[in-house]
Amino acid sequence: MATEIVLKEGVEKNQVVIEAFPGVGFVGAIAAGYIIDQLKMDCIVYIKSDKIPGIAVIHDSKSCHLVRIYAKDDLVIVMSELIIPPTSYRKSQVLLRNGWGR
Predict the structure, then answer these.
(1) Quick one: which H or E segment has residue 91?
(2) For residue 28, what are the contacts with CB-CB under 8 A and spacing of at least 6?
């Protein structure tokens, strides 16, 4: 399977984008999770790929994909519980070429 970006809803252009990938202590992912919960943001995109390990992630008794994108108003959060390798830089350009970020 190739990498597939599944769009669940429309995405506006020129939104503020926050990336929340795990690092030391998972601080980015924890902070992003808090923002997502407080703003009641909706998951609008998830990414499926055979390059993503088969790990189960459960939030609020529901299974989630490891890489997700949430949005509300003019804010977008790219969230992952998976450490993203530096070689994924080229894949991230797809999101920016579509005009999602500024």
Answers:
(1) helix 89-97
(2) 19, 20, 21, 22
Q: What's the predicted TM-score (pTM) here?
A: 0.72
What is the distance, to the nearest Å, from the Cα of residue 93 to the centroid of all Cα atoms in its chain? 14
Q: Where in the sequence is the domain holding 90, given as residue range(s)?
A: 4-97
Residue 28 to residue 53: CA distance in whole angstroms: 20
Per-residue pLDDT for the chain (102 aa), expressed as one digit of tens each?
A: 566 666 666 566 667 888 888 877 888 888 999 999 999 998 888 877 777 777 778 877 887 888 888 999 889 898 888 777 776 666 666 656 655 555
Q: Which of 56, 47, 32 is nearest to 95 (CA)?
A: 47
Q: What share of the chain is helix, strand, coil (3-state, %, to 5)?
A: 25, 35, 35
In a domain, 13, yes or no: yes
Count of domains for the chain: 1
